Amino acid sequence: MRMKKLGGLLCLGALVLFTGCATPTIYSWGRYEGLVYTMYAAPDKATAEMQVIKMEEDFQKARAKNKPVHPGFHAHLGYLYFQLGKADEARRAFETEKANFPESAVLMDRMLASLQKP
Amino acid sequence: MVAGCKTAPPPDYTNFRAHHPKSVLVLPPLNQSTAVEATYGYLSTVTLPLAEMGYYVFPVAVIDHFLKENGMPTAGEMHQAPLEKVREIIGADAVLYVTVEQYGTKYQVVNSATVVQAKARLVDVKTGLVLWEGVGVAVESSGGSGSIIGDLIAAAITQAINTSTDRAHKVAIMANANLFTTPKRGLLYGPRHPKFGAPQ
To answer: What is the domain-level CATH number for residue B94?
Structure first.
């Protein structure tokens, strides 16, 4: 019993050591996951306005590196613009998400339709 | 080394291969830990590893807001949403249901260990079949003897008296890497990954 527990703990240690090396390669991530975390953990530090500024900066950086932005980037940005009442920017962002990732078409069409409402 | 940790047999990928999803809807996790912040602390760490494995991942915060505005105020209610509605309204191929089982830091006098453990189930939206299930765990310790193993043993026998949100969030990122990318137990590569179709 004691040995079994110890074995489990040794394995946990191995997992900690094992994880240091995963580096993403397909997409540019900017500060997206940190922003999503902060918008729930400390909402006043990640308002829609603040997030838009950071995401637009991150988009320019991704373009400069010629690396695609990740799934959901433009959808998230579009939703922020929608919350800020900027319908034109929101529409452009939702259409970009749909063009980059056709998998998002059903949801993006729904978002685009909601922009048509007065 | 890592494969030796678990006694359960390797998962069966038959359903996964037969109904290989292109897109994954990640719902806010159920929380069985004592930390109220676990649901959203964990949710914000799932997109990157899943997308880097080749899947389209729906924007997690947008989905959360959208479902809340449509009569599902909690993760528990979101997890009950009928699959046909998910397909019709969001257009996802698969849903990832995550349950956070441990999330927080255990302290004693000279050291502490932050533990995050989560289990996940990937379900095909069209058929309701379970495509994959897994458990991910990660531990980070600090202080104490300077030996990770020694600290883990010491920390494991202490009671949780506090939590550290930001530390747990960082450890959640490691737990996810273990959950999704452990060879022979993690997810198969998705259609947007260069190794799609190759053995996992």
So the answer is: 3.40.50.10610
